[in-house]
Amino acid sequence: MIDRATIDRIYAAANIVDIIGDYVTLKKKGVNYQACCPFHNEKTPSFVVSPSKGVFKCFGCGKGGNAVTFVMEHESVSYPEALRMVAKRYGIEVEERAMTEEDVRRNNDRESMFALNGWASEYFSKYLTGNPEGKSVGLSYFFAEARLLRGDDPQIRPRILFGARRRSDAGGSGRGI
């Protein structure tokens, strides 16, 4: 396992323009850089690199991320391997340690939460788009929220804010969504 301090040093040293520039020809457009996306075939550049934010985004295929995720995606390697590749480029020594039982448990818990979140997202998306009751309830809520945000319907405000108050009482953000 690569320790957090080493990962932080790698991210601090990584220059996204230099790293991506090794794979594609970037052209400066304002404060950002543009190129044809290396992940799909295109004739018009839709791949944007923002050096100030340290991110890339292709508006054609939707891929995006940072310097390390670019290396992962382009080289088809794992996250630790991509970190090692970027570290090597910048002369950073990668310190690794064996995972403790606590690290393994924490990692397993995290992976379980990602799996559960993915399942819940898929389940509710299908319910809200494929079930007549789900469509009715979901769409009415979203349209009501849109009217509330625009200020179109003062009658809808108490219904949505009632749900928001319950969330804020439980330590939530106080918003209905």
The helix-strand sequence is HHEEEEEHHHHH
Domain tally: 2
- Mean pLDDT comes to 85
The 3D shape can be described as extended
Q: Uncertain segments of ≥5 residues (pLDDT<50)?
A: 160-177
Please give the largest β-sheet: 5 strands, antiparallel
CATH superfamily of the largest domain: Zinc finger, CHC2-typedomain
Examine the secondary-structure arrangement and name the CATH architecture of the largest domain. Alpha-Beta Complex
Strand neighbour order, sheet with most strands:
1-2-3-4-5
Which fold does the CATH topology of the largest domain refer to? Answer: DNA Primase, Chain A
What is the level 1 CATH name of the largest domain? Alpha Beta
Count of DSSP-assigned helices: 7
Question: What layout of secondary structure does this protein have?
Answer:
Layout: H1 4-13, H2 16-21, E1 27-29, E2 32-35, E3 47-50, E4 55-58, E5 64-65, H3 67-75, H4 79-89, H5 101-130, H6 132-150, H7 157-169
Helix pairs in contact: 3-4, 5-6
Overview of this protein structure:
- By secondary structure, the protein is an alpha+beta fold.
- The chain folds into two domains: 4-89, Zinc finger, CHC2-typedomain (DNA Primase, Chain A, Alpha-Beta Complex); 102-169, no CATH class.
- Helices cover 55% and strands 10% of the residues.
- The protein has helices at 4-13, 16-21, 67-75, 79-89, 101-130, 132-150, 157-169, and strands spanning 27-29, 32-35, 47-50, 55-58, 64-65.
- It has a five-stranded antiparallel beta sheet with strand order 1-2-3-4-5.
- A hairpin with a 5-residue loop joins strand 4 (55-58) and strand 5.
- The longest helix has 30 residues, at 101-130.
